[in-house]
Amino acid sequence: MSVTQARPLRQNRDFRLLWTGAGISALGGTITGVTYPLLMIWYGGSPVQAGLVGFAALLPMLLLQLPAGVFVDRWDRRRVMITCDAVSFVSIGSVAVSLLFGTLWLPHLLVVAFLEGSAQIFYRLSERAAVRNVVEPEHLPAALSQNEARSRAAGLLGQPLGSALFALVRWAPFVFTALGHLVALLTLLLIRKEFQTSRESGRRDVRAEIAEGIRWLLGQRFLRSAVLLVGCTNVLFQVLSLSLAVTIRNSGGSPAVIGVIGAASGVGGVLGAMSGSWFVRRLRPGVVIIVVFAVWAAFMPLVALTTNPVLLGAVFAGMSFAGALINVMAGVYQVQVTPDGMQGRVGAVAGLLSSGANSFGALAAGFLLASLTVGSTVLGVSAVMAALAVTAGLSPVIRTTRYREGVTT
């Protein structure tokens, strides 16, 4: 083993730069994700309009995941990430300028939300695929655990920061996010290692490459079952998230209250992510899924039973802790078993199956909350979550799958 291989992960300069830049981008995405519904609900909009903006932001998950995976495997991943930061800087900056001049135009927000969501797709796939080439193999579980902790920390800081900036002046969150993408772009320019192995010179039809990624993932029984189950839960969480905002508004709360609850949720997520590699080494992946689904099924109905911010914060913290564990487990399993030349496509297929319907979840949330009470909406999604938990527990492939040789350390 070489000296470079023996160095601890904390001494890997390129990973630190990649981790930092991606963290800043994730923080910006959290801030805008928090700000869009606040902007629509508190300034002349409605739950339906908030749902439309959420739909536009999440629609790229449905439309662009598969082609994005092909191009992430074809193109230079570093250049893709730089381009994504540049697109986000310009588009989000345009919202800041618009609000600075007192203009709030729904079609403009829809376009920007779609562009930002599209850039996040390419960025996230590129970064996930790059990690395996930036760190040593034995450091991969720890690196992905740190990445998940970073994402959760972005949620922890982004929720209260976005709400606080919005309460200060409504254009401030967009200025902050635009500048953050500029800083993230600069960190990418400083990384020395390549983000991919050598590529084949010949290129096939895009559809053929997409089909190859689909066939590979669908041939993995555990991955196929896991991403479909998680995809159903992600739709439910879109409804739950907008339900929380309406609950706080109806009870006389302010956007800052949502920020506090988001901070509590972020703490839970960070703790779950930091302990993720510990659970990966000790629990089978299916056990993680079953336990997490059971926790979600138990906690979701509580959102309909209280408007107390402290209790809501505790509930969301518990659900985020569980969610972080499942993300670390899925990330380690998928990255380890997928060939490097297919990382982008397989990650895209997994993302499509697990998150592609999120846009419809946000859209459905707006219409459900406009026609039903918040309590009825939350209890409805809770019943679906309970059914998914039972399904996971009864699935033989979920119950029995183990990590492959070399996955744990």
Descriptive terms for the model:
single chain, about 400 residues, mainly alpha, Growth Hormone, Chain: A
Brief summary:
By secondary structure, the chain is mainly alpha-helical. Helix content is 80%, strand content 0%. The protein has a single domain (10-195, 203-400), classed as MFS general substrate transporter like domains (Growth Hormone, Chain: A).
Oligomer: single chain
Low-confidence stretches: 1-6, 405-409
What CATH calls the topology is: Growth Hormone, Chain: A
Number of domains: 1
The second-level CATH architecture is Up-down Bundle
The CATH first-level class comes to: Mainly Alpha
- Would you identify the CATH H-level superfamily? MFS general substrate transporter like domains
Helix content: over 70%
Count up the helices. 18
Overall strand count? 0
Largest sheet: none
Strand and helix order: HHHHHHHHHHHHHHHHHH
Give the CA-based shape.
globular
Radius of gyration, taken over Cα atoms and rounded to an integer in Å: 20 Å
